[in-house]
Amino acid sequence: MKLIKCKDYNEVSAAAANITAAQIKEKPGSVLGLPTGSTPLGMYKKLIEMNKSGEIDFSPVITFNLDEYYPISADNDQSYYYFMHKNFFDHININTQNIHILNGEADDPERECGDYEAMIENAGGIDLQVLGIGQNGHIGFNEPDDFLISATHKTHLTESTVKANSRFFSSIDEVPIYALTMGVGSILKAKKIIILISGKEKAEALKQLLSGKITTKNPSTMLNMHRDVTVIADEEALELIK
Ligand code: PGA
Q1: Which residue range(s) make up the domain with 181?
Q2: Sign of CA dihedral 117, 111, 142, 215
């Protein structure tokens, strides 16, 4: 596992944007796996600037988002569909047919997840998977548990994640308690992975990730089984690392 030590959030965002841009320049039709959350916002802003200045072209790029609440409608301003369009897709020259997000309104969530997995395969697999991390070590909505599910699946959110995400909703009761998420196995199939970690509330999760020990109690530690992972972390997140 490679570690890029950054001074602050801005440096994390710049490093992540540069790696993503390099991937697109090397392979214009790259398949990207993309996250939501506060952490990737700075990276998305920088990628939008690079696209507007003509440095990178998103028209041949294909994207798959990591997860979506369930059930939730696409036009709900807390859906990840809404988030991705508002914060990224509406500002770049991506072909909308190349955007894939799990459908939070699917009648048959199991089928939706199976189809999603097949679509990733058909696109040739993910070239670069970008990840954030939860305070509890979750990646996507793969929450700490006695066991983890490998493929894309419907899952129950933990109380701590519902609480952490309630800051975006008018009340905690409005936070959906289920989600559809790529599984740990789907994530590990990506050819290359970067994980962005900023802030001291992520320090414990990061310490466990960098310990090299693998535990389902911190799903991010599964990344230790992959041979091309780059951790991009700032000083606050690294405060427990000597
Ligand atoms: P955050 O979420 O970037 O908003 O901290 C990350 C995550 O929960 O995966």
Answers
A1: 2-128+136-224
A2: negative
Question: What does each of the 242 residues of the chain score in pLDDT, given as a tens digit?
Answer: 999 999 999 999 999 999 999 999 999 999 999 999 999 999 999 999 999 999 999 999 999 999 999 999 999 999 999 999 999 999 999 999 999 999 999 999 999 999 999 999 999 999 999 999 999 999 999 999 999 999 999 999 989 889 988 998 999 999 999 999 999 999 999 999 999 999 999 999 999 999 999 999 999 999 999 999 999 999 999 999 98
Q: Is 185 in the pocket of ligand 1 (CB under 6 A)?
A: no
Query: What is the total count of domains within the chain?
Result: 1
233 inside domain? no
Token pair belonging to 114: 């199976």
Q: Give the CATH number, domain containing residue 80.
A: 3.40.50.1360
- Residue 149: is it exposed, middle or buried by C-beta count within 10 angstroms (0-12/13-18/19+)? middle
Q: Which atom of ligand 1 is nearest to the CA of 199?
A: 5
Compute the distance from residue 28 Cα to the ligand 1 centre, in Å.
28
Pocket of ligand 1 contains residue 43 by CB under 6 Å: no
